[in-house]
Write a structure and sequence with these properties.
By secondary structure, the protein is mainly beta. Helix content is about 10%, strand content about 45%. The chain contains 1 helix and 11 strands. The protein has one helix spanning about 1-20, and strands spanning about 20-25, 35-45, 50-60, 65-75, 80, 85-90, 95-105, 110-120, 125-135, 150, 160. A hairpin with a 7-residue loop joins strand 10 (about 150) and strand 11 (about 160). Mean pLDDT is about 80; it is low at about 1-15.
């Protein structure tokens, strides 16, 4: 019995660690000045061909107006809910949180994104902010594709420098 427990404990620990949801928030981080919208999300990793719930909470300090949200899924994500590509919330003075609950799946493994373009119309003008919500389907990508794009020259012979970037996703607790 002890041998089974010793052998199964690391395996169950690894499985448990891989099943942790992806969570994130923009609250307390740099935000675009004048765009009073923040976002918090939670997304459960699943295997390919399984459906995951992606819960997004948009928070605003604006007391009136309309919040419009354009939802764009990566081409490998399939929406299983009927949320739609355009969502509109009427902002109520005592309500600060607005919820979007999506169900998505994919037929391939990878890290995919749901992109949100939010806009608040307050009569005198509008404020916009963009967000990206990660969705992990299957195994996490281990290989980073390297592009050799140090310099490019467009038609007018102007040098454009392209910098490499590394994406880091960490779980907030």
């Amino acid at each position: 019995m002890k041998v089974k427990a010793l052998l199964l404990t690391p395996l169950l620990t690894i499985i448990g660690l891989n099943a942790q949801p992806l969570t994130g928030t923009t609250l307390g981080h740099y935000s675009k000045p004048g765009a009073p919208i923040n976002m918090t999300y939670i997304s459960d990793p699943v295997n390919k061909n399984e459906t995951t719930d992606v819960n997004i909470t948009l928070t605003t300090t604006v007391r009136n107006g309309t919040m419009n949200v354009l939802v764009n899924l990566d081409k490998n994500l399939i929406e299983k809910s009927n949320v739609g590509k355009e969502i509109s919330f009427e902002i109520i003075p005592n309500v600060k949180k607005y919820f979007i609950n999506l169900k998505v799946s994919s037929t391939s493994d990878g890290l995919f994104y749901i992109r949100l373009l939010t806009k608040i119309d307050k009569g005198a003008g509008s404020k916009m902010r963009a967000f990206a919500v990660p969705v992990l389907i299957g195994k996490a990508p281990t290989k980073v594709k390297s592009l050799n794009l140090s310099r490019m020259k467009p038609d007018k012979n102007e040098n454009i420098s392209v910098s490499k970037a590394v994406e880091t996703i960490r779980e907030l607790k």
